[in-house]
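Duplicate of #3305? Posting structure anyway:
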């Protein structure tokens, strides 16, 4: 039986590049995340949730539209979402909600209210040069004006860069700013039905901030697959990435020794704890203003971060640490938490929320409501999750396809053309309820993992398991036909 909710509000909090394994609900009790851990204890936690593409713009496009990146057109970073493609606020039929989006957007025209959001507060000034024709490219974010009002001046006299903002005291950080703005919105709209999306940039790179000293690097655990060496049976892209991080490091930090990796992990954990504090402030405002019992609260991230697994960081690969994210939904009045096992996808988030808010689900949406799983004790998802890869988006070797560079140890071993081809390989992935994971590669760099026995994806068993791989490929092909994906996959 469905739970009856009286026109619930929606508070949708999402972070950028937060791995699933940064919360106690997913097995990490060492990191200090009291507020999100408390939210998990009051929510339905999806143990195995996946993004549709492990990089910012494409993943966000799914979270807002309920369409796969290949269907909504946002197949790479910095591709604007078409104004003709509706986001969730535009799907609410009665139009009585007060709607707002605060934080990073990364779906085009960064600082302009759009797609059914009436109130808009931006924090990122680095995308204004990409604004569409006719938009004022000199406009600056609310966060910029907040810093100027508090006596700060950009180093270049124009804009505060990400690195620059990350070095500011915590009270002037983006998370603190967003918490204040979100709390203001909640208080101002306590008597109005509302939809509020809040997106935190952190723990996204740069991997430093005001909490760099919160964790002792020497006490940082290295991932269990840190030492897993790549073999020739694994994609060229991942092997090149690992060598690139070894040679160039990241965020001004070297990544050659275990101690180096412990340093960057400590910083990353500090960024996670930073956002936890300020998410806590938003949740406290929700509670203190008497809104908790009529508000759906969602927490997730647009993708994960490898953070040392396979000696990789960031995203852009199909490994679990990059493609799997925290996902929890607290229903109005819910006080007791529970877990849902089995794979689910963020493609299902929009239809789930529309269902919970008692709105019709548009026929064009490509996911299904998770409401039955939310309302069933000991629920287990029996559906496949599908992930896609469509473009370069690799800052370590150059964002544009004409700007790739090779680590010195690979010069003469791999050509730039081979690297371009590997990075743009349109891999399609399926994760099955029984624990198989197939990455099907148009280049023929297929991977098959048994997540039950090898959760760290350390051994590619594709060569000796062709029959289950063929069956999984057929699952992908069926999904492609249903969703209009035209990438041609080779026979296995």
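Output from current build:
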């Amino acid at each position: 039986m469905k739970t009856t909710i009286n026109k619930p509000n929606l508070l949708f909090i999402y972070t950028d590049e937060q791995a699933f394994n940064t919360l106690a609900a997913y097995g990490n009790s060492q990191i200090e995340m009291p507020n999100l851990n408390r939210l998990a204890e009051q929510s339905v936690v999806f143990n195995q949730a996946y993004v549709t593409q492990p990089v910012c713009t494409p993943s966000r496009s799914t979270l807002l539209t309920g369409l796969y990146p290949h269907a909504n057109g946002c197949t790479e970073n910095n591709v604007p979402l078409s104004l003709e493609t509706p986001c969730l606020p535009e799907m609410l039929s009665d139009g009585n909600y007060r709607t707002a989006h605060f934080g990073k957007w990364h779906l085009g025209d960064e600082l302009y209210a759009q797609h059914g959001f009436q109130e808009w507060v931006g924090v990122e000034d680095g995308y204004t040069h990409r604004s569409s024709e006719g938009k004022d490219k000199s406009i600056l974010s609310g966060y910029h004006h907040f810093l100027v009002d508090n006596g700060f001046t950009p180093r270049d006299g124009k804009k505060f860069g990400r690195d620059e903002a990350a070095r500011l005291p915590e009270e002037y950080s983006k998370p603190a700013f967003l918490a204040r703005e979100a709390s203001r919105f909640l208080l101002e709209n306590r008597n109005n039905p509302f939809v509020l999306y809040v997106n935190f940039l952190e723990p996204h790179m740069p991997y430093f901030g005001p909490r760099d000293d919160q964790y002792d690097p020497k006490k940082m655990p290295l991932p269990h697959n840190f030492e897993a060496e790549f073999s020739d049976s694994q994609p060229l892209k991942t092997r090149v990435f690992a060598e690139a991080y070894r040679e160039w490091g990241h965020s001004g930090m070297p990544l050659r020794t275990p101690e180096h990796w412990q340093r960057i992990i400590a910083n990353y954990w500090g960024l996670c704890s930073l956002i936890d504090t300020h998410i806590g402030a938003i949740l406290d405002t929700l509670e203190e203003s008497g809104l908790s019992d009529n508000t759906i609260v969602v927490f997730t991230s647009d993708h994960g971060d490898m953070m040392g697994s396979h000696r990789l960081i960031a995203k852009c690969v199909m490994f679990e640490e990059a493609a799997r994210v925290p996902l929890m939904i607290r229903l109005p009045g819910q006080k007791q938490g529970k877990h849902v096992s089995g794979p689910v996808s963020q493609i299902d988030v929009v239809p789930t929320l529309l269902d919970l808010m008692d709105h019709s689900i548009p026929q064009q949406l490509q996911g299904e409501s998770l409401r039955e799983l939310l309302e069933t004790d000991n629920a287990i998802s029996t559906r496949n999750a599908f992930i896609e890869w469509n473009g370069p988006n690799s800052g370590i070797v150059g964002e544009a396809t004409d700007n790739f560079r090779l680590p010195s140890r690979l010069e003469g071993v791999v050509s730039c053309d081979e690297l371009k081809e590997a990075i743009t390989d349109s891999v399609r992935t399926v994760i099955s309820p029984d624990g198989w994971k197939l990455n099907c590669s148009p280049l023929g760099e297929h991977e098959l993992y048994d997540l039950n026995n090898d959760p760290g994806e350390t051994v590619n068993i594709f060569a000796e398991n062709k029959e289950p791989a063929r069956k999984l490929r057929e699952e992908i092909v069926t999904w492609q036909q249903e969703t209009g994906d035209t990438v041609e996959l080779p026979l296995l």
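Confirmed duplicate; merging threads. The two ends are 44 Å apart (CA to CA). The chain has a mean pLDDT of 94.
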